[in-house]
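Quick one, T. Sequence first:
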Amino acid sequence: MKNIQQIFNNEMKSMSDEFGLDYSRVAVAVSGGADSMALLNLLNGYIKEKGGKLTALCVNHHLRAEADEEAAYVKEFSQSIGVDCQILDWEHEPLETGIETKARSARYDLMTRWCADNDYPVLFVAHHLRDQAETFLIRLQRGSGVDGLAAMSKTIRRNGIVIARPLLYFDPRTLRDYLVSQNIEWKEDASNQCTEFLRVRVRNILPILERELGLSLKKIGTATKAMAETKKMFIKYVDEFIRKRCRNTYGCGWRFKPQDFDKLESEVKFRVLAELIRQVGKSEYPPEYEALKRLQDAIMGAHFRGSTLGGCEILRFNDLIWITKESKNTETLSKEQWREYTALHPEVLKFRLPYKLRLNLVKKNKKK
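Structure tokens:
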């Protein structure tokens, strides 16, 4: 077996260089399963060498009889290798539907909140090559485009915390071999065998795809990397358009010239709308693909005057496209309110502003 610790250390350095990660105080999500136990031990070796501080976070969902025992094992093992461990309890009402989704959301909220409260800018999670392959196939089944088929990225940001995935292209079989070589035990989660979950069904067909078609985890991983590079190129074009051609309107939205927008390739148009709506709507994710495509097709039409999507109002006014926060139909702006606002902010009189944006400017001023 190759020196997995050295391979892992090289990946950690590469991620630090690419994403500017600070490893002085980091947390790691540990469930007690093989993947997270391997990550915990590998991280401990790296962070100790760098003189940093590592804390293990274990979320007890209280959904299975074994949960308390697994959390206790994680804490005991963490302490045995000199790593602090925090058990985070998820308090919830009885759950009947959407258990997996709700548990995942609660898990990330608990861990990122702990990281924010304790000044830990990076949280490591143990997603690996099989997880990446499963995500690719699930998104392929849903008809995803480039972004979906790029599957998981090495880093994302949630609640102000960087979620980092240094094992994303490590084969889980290698991780288990590593644990055996280190005499480290792990706990098996019975829910990983529950075929009610799509991900488990996809996981079960992966060996068949490899045996019958030669479609290995490594080959799927190579495809996701290629898609990720394409995604990165599109992001560069989108960022350039927003920086050069879009104007932020007093912190209440964006505006751009339709003729500039019309010169873009279709895929870039789609992504510009997705990013601006995501920003204005303050959402973690952009609106659904089909809804965005309908807006993209409509926005340049001669009869387009306005639409709502993703918590935003998209308007055509004064030969510009405007994106601002969606307001309730019951909200109104009087002439007197606008006069009072412009008396305090005369600079806004330089532009003809759509009514919905003026309404949001006044609302924002009241909150100060």
